[in-house]
Specification:
Layout lengths: L6 E10 L3 H19 L2 E9 L2 E10 L2 H8 L12 H4 L8 E4 L6
Antiparallel strand pairs: 1-3, 1-4, 2-3
Protein name: Putative enzyme involved in biosynthesis of extracellular polysaccharides
Organism: Neorhizobium galegae bv. orientalis str. HAMBI 540
Length: 105
């Protein structure tokens, strides 16, 4: 298996700004640790959008198969955390899986 990332899996979700800090803590406790154990790298972004806050999680993978093994099958399928329906304005219907064309790390 290659140790160089060739694929990025990008998830986006929005929450109300008033509970964004609480959701961030929940993501860091529940959603991010499994990725840290399996992906080559993980990034979590946060953007304030007035009444809402958007979170973007990007995980990096050596190939589609390694990503599929970790996600339990279809990496295109969104895997919602148990409390996402409580926190998120709407449940994301998709994740983006993008081939990395340039990586200058």
């Amino acid at each position: 298996m290659s140790t160089k990332a060739t694929i990025a899996r990008i998830w986006r979700g929005r929450t109300r700004a008033a509970i964004a800090d609480e959701y961030e803590a929940y993501l860091l406790e529940t959603g991010i640790p499994p990725l840290l154990k399996t992906a080559l790298a993980v990034q979590l972004f946060r953007e304030e959008l007035g009444d809402e806050t958007e979170f973007v999680t990007t995980s990096y993978w050596p190939d589609f198969q390694s990503m599929a093994t970790v996600t339990g099958g279809d990496p295109n399928k969104v895997h919602h955390l148990d409390r996402d329906p409580h926190y998120l304005v709407e449940l994301p219907e998709r994740v983006a899986i993008m081939k990395i064309l340039i990586d200058r790390n």
